[in-house]
């Protein structure tokens, strides 16, 4: 069970339509992933083995607009672990109503210093889940 | 056939990894859609009928990092027109090599003043294609 | 005495140089102003009188780079109240060392519905200080 | 005489107020500086001597809001060359009216590999002016 984060929507998050801009949502997702998995990413194990991760796909649904002064909660959880990729499901909820404003599958691969994909072992899997 | 756009990658587009940040790509895509379809969106037909559009899904693949001083070209084309949605395929190419740095399907719906989805008639379809 | 805010620097805040980008600092400052003065700006008094504020000048010094995983604290305080403008001093401190990474004077004017400047009365001054 | 740049204002440049957000202006200024001085910054002379530059102060006036579908032109010129700093004046003009939407003094210092300020010699001065 990973930490959720809460963000208050400000004027500078919005765009012409008065809603959170779709690029900004990706920053919110990245913020939430660092909060949920930063400890793993910055762990000695990762550093020692020169492992970093890269995002290879984001599939995001924009469901209900979010606007100024609303609070959103971002939940992050591991959806799927493959041999070489991990998919994180992130759900962005309007705090007041509990409804999803946007949700996304974010697929990452781990790479070594040479940029080669790293196999997701049970040990690695356990660190994320 | 719609207009492509070209963007030169600057230092402020990058993040910690020295690559264009994944949120920034969505701004590039939005810029390219305005260039390709802005004339339609701002047309009298749209204004008269109070039609606007909203993005409901973005599915983006990050394939090869883009970095400072590279030029990227963004191509936009209609991939699929449904009864109530239009999917634009956007391909972001590194100009020097012709390789795709990222590509995305962006699905939009048209809505009327009341926020109700508008059926994509042949007339509307022709305006985009 | 107004509320300070704390932000953890993430990879997406940085640019090519590996430091927080200078545009991003302005978002941090805006976030801090909303936290410090949002209650006033959103007060019934402001709403009833149709008052909003606009930033007319930002004078920011970039003193020491801030980078990934550092925590910054942003203090906001009223520096000067004129007849028609308010200057907020904002100091961004590296939490670990207490040193200033950047600081800024941000000058705002209050405007009415017609966009005309509103005189800063004692009543208004008291709301901010 | 340096190259000006032109940018078309898009929906994602705006914020809650329907105007270009004040942080975004700093990205526009950075874009314009790269266009005007990128050739110098990326020159062999700079590379050979390990010189880079950092922005130490931005003093920006927000004069008239800029909004969607307007075109802005950004002019950059050297305002002042000191012993250890260069101040660039950047004027952002609404193309249609010729009026200034925002203008800024941007002060930079050149630093060597060790992060020490580099004296601005006549040779360096000539490269920028």
Describe the structure.
Chain A has 129 residues and is an alpha+beta fold. The first copy, chain A, has a single domain (5-128), classed as Hotdog Thioesterase (Thiol Ester Dehydrase, Chain A, Roll). The first copy, chain A, is 25% helix and 36% strand. In chain A, a hairpin with a 4-residue loop joins strand 3 and strand 4. The first copy, chain A, is elongated and about 45 Å long. The relative contact order of chain A is 0.22. The model of chain A has no long low-confidence stretch (mean pLDDT 94). The B-C interface holds B 10-18, 21, 23, 68 and C 10-18, 21, 23, 68.
List the helices and strands and how they pair.
Four copies of one chain form a homotetramer.
Chain A: E1 5-8, H1 22-41, H2 44-48, E2 52-62, E3 71-81, E4 86-94, E5 100-111, H3 122-128
Antiparallel strand pairs in A: 1-3, 2-5, 3-4, 4-5
Short description:
The structure is a homotetramer of 129-residue chains. Chain A is of the alpha+beta class. Chain A has helices at residues 22-41, 44-48, 122-128, and strands at 5-8, 52-62, 71-81, 86-94, 100-111.
Number of domains of chain A: 1
Give the percentage of residues in beta strands of chain A. Answer: 35-45%
Uncertain spans of chain A, ≥5 residues at pLDDT below 50? none
Largest interface: A-B, 18 and 18 residues
The overall average pLDDT of chain A, rounded, is 94
Rg value of chain A: 16 Å
Structural class of chain A: alpha+beta
| Portion in helices of chain A | 10-25%
Question: How many strands, which pairing sense, and closed or not: the largest β-sheet of chain A?
Answer: 5 strands, antiparallel
Any idea what the CATH superfamily of chain A is called?
A: Hotdog Thioesterase
Which CATH architecture of chain A would you pick?
Roll
Shape of chain A: elongated
CATH class descriptor name of chain A: Alpha Beta
């Amino acid at each position: 069970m990973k930490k959720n984060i809460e963000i208050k929507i400000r004027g500078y998050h919005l765009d012409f339509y008065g809603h959170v801009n779709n690029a900004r949502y990706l920053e919110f997702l990245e913020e939430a992933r660092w909060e949920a998995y930063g400890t793993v990413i910055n762990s000695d194990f990762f550093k020692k083995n020169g492992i970093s991760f890269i995002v290879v796909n984001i599939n995001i649904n924009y469901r209900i607009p979010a606007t100024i002064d609303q609070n959103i909660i971002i939940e992050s959880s591991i959806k799927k672990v493959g041999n070489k990729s991990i998919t994180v499901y992130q759900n962005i909820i309007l705090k007041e109503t509990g409804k999803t404003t946007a949700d996304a599958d974010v697929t990452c691969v781990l790479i070594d210093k040479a940029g080669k994909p790293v196999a997701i072992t049970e040990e690695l899997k356990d660190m994320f889940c």
